[in-house]
Design brief:
Largest sheet: 8 strands, antiparallel, barrel
Helix content: 25-40%
Number of helices: 6
Low-confidence stretches: none
Structural class: alpha+beta
Mean pLDDT: 92
Shape: globular
């Protein structure tokens, strides 16, 4: 198990703004890799209601289970490596095989047996070191949606926010209130679920 605090800034982009950033950072198709995020929650979105999320990320043939929970002004991520067989069981049944994650969900007063598999989001991603942080450019596909996003991961919130705002201003990209991928996925799933 590993845990880390995540401080990041996000901004949804138009396709043209995304391409502007690709050119700004001199990225080519070879700089992008693909990852899959598979999301889980209860049928009534109990994790989402608490600002939390559960996912399995498949990247370069490896699987990692992550529980994200609110922590001060950031997110606490608890990560567990999974073997492919265990990941497949979770996709098919929603059953959480990891005891640490199961315990943390119980501590949120959610029955882990109510968790079910919701679906996947595929992202083409490029990462670039920038001003003591990490710029991440994502092109994501989920539930018949395609979106583009800029993320900036930092260790210092105040300094990071200034650098992020400066980058957006420099490239004439408007600041947009941006939910994280999990929330965008859940919101779309919720809307489709209630149609």
């Amino acid at each position: 198990m590993s845990q880390n605090i995540e401080i990041e800034f996000k901004n949804l982009l138009t396709k043209q703004e995304f391409e502007r950033l690709v050119n700004h950072f001199k990225l080519s198709e070879m700089d992008f890799f693909t990852q899959e995020n598979h999301y889980f929650d209860t049928s009534d979105f109990a994790l989402k209601e608490q600002g939390s999320a559960l996912r399995i990320r498949k990247k370069e043939g490896k699987y990692e289970l992550t529980l994200k929970q609110p922590y001060q002004d950031a997110l606490l991520e608890t990560n567990e490596t999974l073997d492919p067989y265990t990941a497949e069981i979770m996709f098919k049944t929603g059953k959480i095989m990891d005891e640490t994650i199961k315990r943390l969900i119980k501590e949120m007063n959610i029955n882990p047996n109510r968790i079910q598999y919701f679906g996947s989001l595929t992202t083409k991603r490029a990462e670039v070191e920038y001003e003591k942080g990490l710029v991440v450019l994502d092109n994501s596909f989920y539930l018949n949606i395609e979106d583009f996003e800029l993320e900036y991961e930092v260790s210092n919130r105040i300094d990071g926010q200034k650098k992020f705002a400066s980058l957006l201003a420099q490239l004439e990209i408007p600041v947009r209130k941006t939910e994280n991928k999990i929330k965008r996925f859940y919101n779309e799933k919720y809307m489709q679920h209630n149609d």
